[in-house]
Amino acid sequence: MKIIQGGMGAGVSNWQLARAVSVEGELGVVSGTATEVIMARRLQEGDEGGHTRRALAAFPDQEIADRIIRDYFAETMLERAVAKLPKVHKLNEPEQLAQDTIAANFVEVYLAKEGHNNPVGINLLTKIQLPVLASLYGAMLAGVDYVVMGAGVPREVPAILDKLIRHEDVSMALQVEGARSEDSFRSHLSPKNLIRNLPPELPRPAFYPIVASNVLATTMVRKATGKVDGLIVEGPTAGGHNAPPRGAMQLDANDEPIYGDRDEVDLGKISALGLPFYLAGGWGGVNKLKEALALEAAGIQVGTAFAFCTESGLAQTVKEAALRMASEGIGKVVTDVFASPTGFPFKVLSLEGTMSEVADYLTRPRVCNLGFLRHLYKKDDGEIGYRCPSEPENSYLAKGGGESELEGRKCLCNGLMANIGLGIPRNDGYFEPPLVTVGDCFNQLCELVKGWGEGYSASDVIEYLTRDLAPQT
Q1: In sequence order, which residues have a C-beta less than 8 Å from that of residue 156 and are 6 or more positions away?
Q2: For the chain, how far is it from start to end, CA to CA, in angstroms?
Q3: Residue among 432, 397, 391, 428 nearest 409 (CA)
Q4: CA–CA distance, 60 with 58 (Å, rounded to integer)
């Protein structure tokens, strides 16, 4: 494989897209972000095509599968009026939530692998800490071939994979604000206590962390708890969350972060680590795959071009509006240092009717009803608390959050669900606007639109990316 399809978060990299890419012989990747909520919303919306229920019928524990369908499946419009969602993740969470998360990731990978024998991957974000163990295990139950993880330092994951293939108990250290060196906060998963009818052993997926610096690449290769099989080297032009600039944060006249020489990755040193590596962030254009191969990379990871193809999970209205802008070369991408509650810079496409517009942001009632990006913090009593700079201001301040941290924060959880047409219904009637993230290369999509039209497919993207490799006649 020379192309890894990016794991765009919360259902953009859905099973349809990953399957379409894998069928073509490249690596299709499903997003593991908020899969349990997406599964519940698909079932609540009637499960068009019956795909979710078909996958659940293959889940090892049919008692859990039946319970999930009872909990979330809605046949009538009346039943769909009020969203029933999985609970928000917490330490020592209910067994049903862990089971929902395992099943949801199983569903996504199972459907992506259905009907062919080519590899499929899953992308997880290290910073979304609490669901990681259950997400990994669910994907592995479906036979996932690659695990891709970014937005953090997932040093413990290789050893976790080694244990999960035998259904052993696993745990993972949690990053907790205010914790001291003597504190030990860990999440835990006990597969055999959650799932029945397990197979004897699972295949171990290859592990590819996403790195943004030589230091992180070396740390992962030399200090991870087990085998790292390859690397994805991502630059700051990539969509979604970006690693912050090294050193003190400096902003330009547009309040965007300034990246400098210290943020450049030495690919010679990456190559010397002896693992296959893929280049990500701005590598989705003409001749870029050929250029990457000349730099000794194994290939490229591409997100933005796949995000707007027919198979991706983005809502059709979002695709159409964005592609019109791209075809005219007028798309504006902003690296917003305030939008994400994580504190990481986050790339946002300026698009009318979305949360990128100041008026829409200012009128949105704050809420934290999904909680994937909440911060874990140590309370005065030594227990873990949960807070998010995007939640209602009084609530955040009452939990010890700083007032300066509230400015400009957007709710990525709800915005990304709205992107895929599965926004969460609100009791107050408020309709969540989307929040579209793309890479700096967004306007290059005009070349795809010119060649294949606004309804271009995943296979068209692959043809576009590889045509410079075709032998000359």
Answers
A1: 172, 173, 224, 225
A2: 24
A3: 391
A4: 6
pLDDT tens, position by position, 101-144: 999 999 999 999 999 999 999 999 999 999 999 999 999 999 99
Residue 22 falls within a domain, yes or no?
Answer: yes
pLDDT of residue 146: 98
Give the closest residue to 123 by CA, choosing from 207, 51, 202, 59: 207
Distance of CA 35 to the CA centre of its chain: 10
pTM assigned to the model: 0.94
Q: Is the pLDDT of residue 199 over 90?
A: yes
Strand 299-302 with 146-150, pairing: unpaired
User: Which residues is 458 bridged to in the sheet?
Assistant: none
Res. 470: pLDDT tops 80: no
- Per-residue model confidence as pLDDT tens digits over 228-271: 999 999 887 777 777 777 777 777 777 778 877 777 889 999 99
Could you give the angle at which helices 445-452 and 316-328 cross, rounded to 10 degrees?
Answer: 100
Total structural domains in the chain? 1
> Pairing mode, if any, of strands 277-280 and 186-189?
unpaired
Q: Of 210, 255, 253, which Cα lies nearest the Cα of 231?
A: 210
Hey, which residues does 189 pair with through a beta bridge? 170
The closest alpha carbon to 243, from 93, 172, 347, belongs to: 347
Q: What CATH number does the domain containing 303 carry?
A: 3.20.20
Report which secondary-structure segment, H or E, holds 97: helix 95-113
Structural domain for 117, as ranges: 3-314+452-468
Q: How far is CA 19 from the centre of its chain?
A: 17
Domain assignment present for 20 = yes
Tell me the C-alpha distance between 256 and 447, whole Å. 27
Tokens of 61: 């524990």
- Whose CA is closest to 103, among 165, 59, 37, 58? 59
In Å, the largest CA–CA distance within the chain is 73
pLDDT band at 472 (very low <50, low <70, confident <90, very high): very low
Q: Which residue, among 389, 324, 317, has the nearest Cα to 354 in the 3D structure? A: 317
**Which tokens in the block code for residue 211?**
């790195």
Provide the 3-class DSSP secondary structure of residue 223. Answer: helix
Is residue 326 a contact partner of residue 442, using CB atoms and an 8 Å limit?
A: yes
Please report whether residue 340 resides in a domain. no
E strands in 120-195: 120-125, 146-150, 170-173, 186-189
Let me know: does 102 contact 195? Beta carbons within 8 Å: yes
Distance CA 178, CA 57 (A): 44
> What is the rounded average pLDDT for all residues in the chain?
90
Identify whether 360 is part of a domain: no
Q: Is 240 left (phi over 0), alpha (psi -120 to 50) or beta?
A: left
Closest CA to 122 of 133, 108, 141, 134: 108
